[in-house]
Amino acid sequence: MKTLATFAACALVITSAHAESILLRPAAVFDGQEMHAGWSVLVTDDKIAAAGANVSAPAGARTIELAGQTLMPGMIEGHSHMFLHPYNETSWNDQIVQESIALRTARATVHARKTLEAGFTTARDLGSEGAGYADVGLKQAIDSGIIPGPRLLIATLALVATGSYGPKLSTDVSVPQGAQEASGVEEVTRLTREQIGKGADIVKVYADYRWGSGESSRPTFSQEELNAIVQTARSAGRPTIAHATTPEGMRRATEAGVETIEHGDDGTPEVFRLMKQKGVALCPTVAAGDAISRYRGWKKGVDPEPPRIAAKRASVKAAREAGVTFAMGGDSGVFAHGENALEMELLVREHGFTAVDVLRQATSGNAAIFHLSDRGAIRPATLADLVAVQGDPTRDIAAVRDVRFVMKGGAIVRQP
Fold first, then answer.
1. CB within 8 A of 327, min separation 6: which ones?
2. What is d(CA 407, CA 416) in angstroms, rounded to the nearest whole number?
3. Which tens digits make up the pLDDT trace of 2-51?
4. Pick the residue with more confidence: 121 or 175?
5. What distance in Å separates the CA atoms of residue 102 and residue 115, rounded to the nearest whole number?
6. Could you say which of 141, 195, 315, 353 would form a disulfide bridge with 267 (CB–CB 3.0 to 4.6 Å)?
């Protein structure tokens, strides 16, 4: 069991000066695309200085032997919610209504640390889910070295069509919502600007959602509203991403010019072909649906597969056949932070991807989709965000759970 002193030491490691060069000598290096046996990686300050088969260390450099391990770029979590914790602990409604922002922020600091220690050195945090702009402060605390955590890309409040989100209690009771409500082109434009001004790196919009309890999802924002959101964000140099599960919600968001569709549960071959044509990526979050089904009583491997799991399998298959680009992100927060690798395992074991496919998605692939040219690969001048796992994850994806070494910006975060 880790102590507070351990956590404090971890934070000190992250903030300490690290002018020395470090030579990392693993069994092999996955560079974000391919495996290379016998490679070493030289880190100087916060960057990779060299990588290859014949890397020599300068005088005074420290050498770290990573015997039997694969060194790879720090993984990038494509869909997380640092201010949520698993729904089998507390329902989403109760988290939004009954947990204070102070409590939720305290939890988020732990979630950030667990994410980093699991080898995810960057994460998109796609909505504070009723915690206001607390994600701005969380990001600042990480960047300042006050607490350990991944480099965050934050979406702050996220935008929902008025009346479509939750929590929903009695019609006589108004409660804080899990996202910011908006209606009309003028208002969505104003609130998009407001969120960006408060610190949003990403604008997130709910292109469809359930209007009432027990209903299926339906499109929420009009095409004109979505167009206005995307154009406003683009003018400010921010990407827009869309929660969308219905074919029409996905179509409208794609036509508007969002960069990724999150979930895509009921996507059709037609809408996936449109996404391919428009260059829109899919973040399928298969782990979230798997977790929710288990919370509802599904005994995996014993009970028949729930319809929502079968539907997700079909949509992922259709997206692959259409040639859609995949982002890797599991929707952590629905399930435990630090268990982010669950998404990668499910993609391999249940959705037909190879281990190399998902390793690329979680490193160089996500870096390309999210415009992060300084990470996701092992090559000179990129950030020294590095992870070593025991064994060969290109042969057994489960190896990504056995994290032995984590470095963020040249500072060692985790080491045996």
1. 78, 79, 260, 281, 282, 283, 361, 365, 366, 369, 370
2. 12
3. 443 343 334 334 434 445 899 999 999 999 999 999 999 999 999 999 99
4. 121
5. 20
6. 315
Measure the CA–CA gap between 45 and 56, rounded to whole angstroms: 16
* Phi, psi (degrees; rounded to nearest 5) at 413: -95, -40
Sign of CA dihedral 342, 348, 352, 357: positive
DSSP class of 115: H
Q: How far is CA 209 from CA 80, 243, 316, 393, 403, in A?
A: 19, 8, 20, 37, 37
Distance CA 196, CA 232 (A): 10
Say how far apart CA 115 and CA 380 lie, in whole Å: 25
Query: Each residue of 112-125: pLDDT tens digit?
Result: 999 999 999 999 99
Q: Which one-letter amino acid corresponds to residue 190?
A: R
First to last CA, the chain: 15
**Residue 122 CB contacts under 8 Å (≥ 6 apart), including other chains:** 74, 75, 76, 77, 150, 151, 152, 153, 366, 372, 375, 385
Cβ atoms of residues 376 and 363 within 8 Å: yes
Ordered domains of the chain (ranges, CATH) = 4-74+376-414 (2.30.40.10), 75-369 (3.20.20.140)
Phi, psi for 210 (deg, rounded to 5) = -80, 125
Both structure tokens of 257? 């010019």
φ/ψ of residue 382, rounded to 5: -85, 160
Helices 307-322/269-278 angle, 10° precision: 40
Provide the pLDDT confidence category of residue 214 given band limits of 50, 70 and 90: confident
pLDDT value, residue 19: 58
